[in-house]
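Why this split exists: single-chain examples teach little about how molecules sit against one another. For that reason, every record in the complexes split bundles all components of an assembly together and asks for one structure covering all of them. Below is a record exactly as it appears in the raw files.
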Amino acid sequence: MDAFLNLLGGFEVAISPYNLVIAGVGVFLGVIIGVLPGLGGTSGVAILLPLTFTMPPTSAIVFLSCIYWGALFGGAITSILFNIPGEPWSVAVMFDGYPMARDGRAGQALALAFIPGFFAAFIAVVLFTFFAPPLAELALRFGPPETFAILLLAFSTFTGLGRGSPMKSVASATLGFILASVGLDVVTGRPRLTFDSIILLSGFSFITASIGAFGVGEILQSAEERLEFRGTQGKVGLGDLWLTIRETGRSIGTFVTSTVLGFWIGVLPGTGATPASFMAYGLAKQYSKHPEKFGTGAPEGIISTQSAAQSAGIGALLPMVTLGIPGSPTAAVILGGLYIWGLTPGPMLFIEQKDFVWGLIASMYIGNVIGVLMCVLLVPVFAAILRVPAPILTPSIILLSSIGAYAVNNTTFDIWLLLAFGVAGYVFKKLNYPLAPFVVALVLGDMTEEALRQSLIMSSGSLWIFFTRPIAAVGVVVALALFMMPLLRPGIARLRNGLGAVPPAQA
Amino acid sequence: MRGKRLRVVSAVLVALVLAVGLLALGADRPAQAAWQPSKPVEFIIMAGQGGGADVYARFISGLIEKHKLAPVPFVPLNKAGGAGAVAMEHVRGKSGDPHTIMITLSSFVMTPIIQKLPFSYKDFTPISLVALDNFFLWVQKDSPWKSVKEFVAAAQKESLTVAGTGSKQEDELIFTFFEQKADLKPFKYVPFKGGGTVAANLVGGQVKATVNNPSEGLPHYPGKLRPLATFATERHKGQFADLPTMKELGYDISYQMMRGIFGPPKMPVEAREYYAGLMKKVFDLEDFQAFLDKNVLDARYLAGDEFGRWVGGYNDVHVQVIQKAGWSK
Amino acid sequence: MKRAEIITALALLVIAGFVMREAIRLGPGWGEAGPRGGFFPFWLSVVLGLSSLWILFQALRHGSQLARNAFFPPGAIRQVLTVFLPMAGAFALFEVVGFYVTALVYLVFYIRLTGRQSWALTVAVGILFPTVTFLIFERWFLIPLPKGRFGEQLLPF
């Protein structure tokens, strides 16, 4: 009940006219930042941070967090309409969002991102409101072995993700892993696979790779068919909302799992919305009744990824406020803001700066309501973009993509990488190499290796560390079982058919 | 932007003016009374968004903006990667440019010692030091070690698991230093990507000790963590006045992290003086001093050749420890 | 299609070879504190090598089947190049005159020559697009876009 009263107090702070305006402006800027590939939520927040120096801390945090909420919504837009991720966390939304939009159901695809995304954020804020301190305590029990177990679980849900030749899926995933390992090795502090090039020390950015392989690749492919990139067609209307709510109701299981999973991944330090969205996708596919529809415009594919991303975004602020540990890169920048405003994060914040903490929490409710309203009302504007003639749209999208790649490291080298990934994506697609395993491996690859090697330093090289710690053990065992599934399935089927069916020689 | 022709004409004109200007600069005229930047200044950050260096850079550029200290905006630009090598390479390529400055941390001297790179700290123009960041030796609050002496006794018996930011960077350097001076069993050093995560792993009991900066440990103080000592040369004032220094406890280890500003090679003297003066103005701001106090940084301003000499000494300390640890290559 | 399959598989094989060489240099083994820097790259290169060999083998075996579909449908190569070449050209131009001038040239070229839109529309987009990106990125969000070798002299603002 205490939380409830505090929350009411928080609303009093957040609903003051000044803070409401700040929240609205923040969400609006966030949506723009989310839409533009060159502007990420993380850099957007970083760039606007100095603006907050003249605001009171509560308004400042409301402003920055609302930018984050806006960007979480907005990232999905370009992913769905043009197959170009506006944000890292909206790469997974492309897998099904873009195919659905290309089918002429762009409006429905957008609605499937916004509406469940909003409800997911709402559930996440409720969890945040009532369980922040105990959840933070729980997050602290997750060391490298537990993180490794979670990442292994994520990969295990992706087995059998690619369609077509399994060998091509393997090649695509290994290539992703290899690119992920390029750069400075965090564990040894030495360059790896950089071939003495300084520029390669930063490694390959998964943003450049996915804008290239998906976006530019798509542009090249559609050029083949009819000279122009046609983007997506079809009406975008508010009537899609009702369809969406019905669809979400049908996939309620996927929605709830993705939201809860996303929230928890967000709470864990150092992960954030991007891995959360990929994990939710793998999980949704694994347990879907129609896994074969994933990748061709399955509603669950959009619902799971966007819900996970948005609840992870909320979750990421939890350890930031309660412990001073950023749950995601964007949260890390907001945390920097806290220091600048003269606040020290941590449990004391809940006692000494009640207005600040509860104002922030209340603004999460308000910001997400503003966000969903804004996005839904903007749907007709997106429809207008789709009516822009292709000869104008194509070069504009190419230019925006190049800004997106450039802004990753502020080097033109990334623009050339974009071109290379574009060609590779085009060729891969034509030859039926699946692209999803490649991106997933590139995103999660070095995180996984890092967690594994950190764990092994702790245990002096013994793999037992994954089995002597209860949380890690459960995760690793389940993951291993899932990896074995494709091999075990025939055996299980045989067992079900009765032992009699098994030839005596094998029994 | 009214018309294409106007734009082209003005562009050509300005190109001419600039060309003449460049020639004039090359002629090495005596310093003008008041050089000022004429276009936005690129403020390069040697690390990614959200890290310590990033916070300082954005704070400083925000203060410049808030107090209208400069006629142009300072644009923070992250060049992460290669423990600073990518940023240094970028700034080195801007030789002579008066509109680029870089905020640095220890990796500015360490990275060129450890990695094979075509440059060293000497190639860059020292502008000013603005602060020295401190390191505490942190343990969990309910750990049995109440003093450095008890900690050392334990660390001499077995290899303790410790954590820090990055590999072969300042945190590991301090632990190695500690090993060398106090004759400890080698630590099992677990590298993480950020200081906040390092502190979280100590609070969560994954590791036994860290050398986090005060700002990273403070969120858990005094509830969960306990500092045993500071690696500063002298005791701090205020909140941590009772915290002993390693030196007074008999371990000759002092280490502080440079938060300094550098320019590209061959930066014009008047630009260098301008930025040094600007940083002094920032340094003297009440906001800035309050920020340093709160996060237990030493306020220390040095500029020009004095700063250059200081960096030389700072570099030598690193060379010694790194060579002894066998990290250089 | 057959040739494309083979070339791609060979390219992957070459990548695997490079990675393996580098991994061996880094130490592919298992040190006293777990895997060394080259451990994962080494085994990844092995898997990549094996899978690309398998793909190569399949392409050679089922070659006649694959050969029936051309990699480029008739006329497609021209279409793809009309998009690809201007794009690559624009990226090269970034290095020389920077983003804004390139955007203007590229848009005018593409919209007018490839897209055959009216001059009025072409010029309007050609000027509006760089202006809007300039305002958003350079002015409001302070993200400097590439200036190229001469961009700063051409557009000094």
